[in-house]
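Table S2 (continued). Query chain:
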Amino acid sequence: MNEKKLIEKAFEAMEYAYVPYSHFRVGACVLTSDGNYLPGANIENAAYGSTMCAERNAVFGAYCRGYRKNEIQALAIVCEGKRPAAPCGSCRQVLSELLDPKTPIYLSNGEITIEKTIAELLPMSFGEEDLKEEQGD
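Corresponding output:
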């Protein structure tokens, strides 16, 4: 896997961010097992709850194209901040369900790159196993 190319693609995606309120651009990119790079950028809305983060855009885009967690090789999330931007709480919840717990997530601001997994970013997450009913004997 080419971590550097994935991060570059995420920075390219960041150019398409729509951020008239926060002015904080974020880009993301998913690398799939068949070598596709699927970008995402944050898109803001005056109704803040309708805003979509870059990493959700990228991962949702992968799912919309038929990919599933076992086909997502890595995710990069980039910004121009003083430190790499980590996913917000909503994104962590989404990523905990849509990524394999061991999928590498690269957080970068161009100067610093940190590698994490969603299991590290959201320990003890709530997921599908919590919703399954106990099977009686």
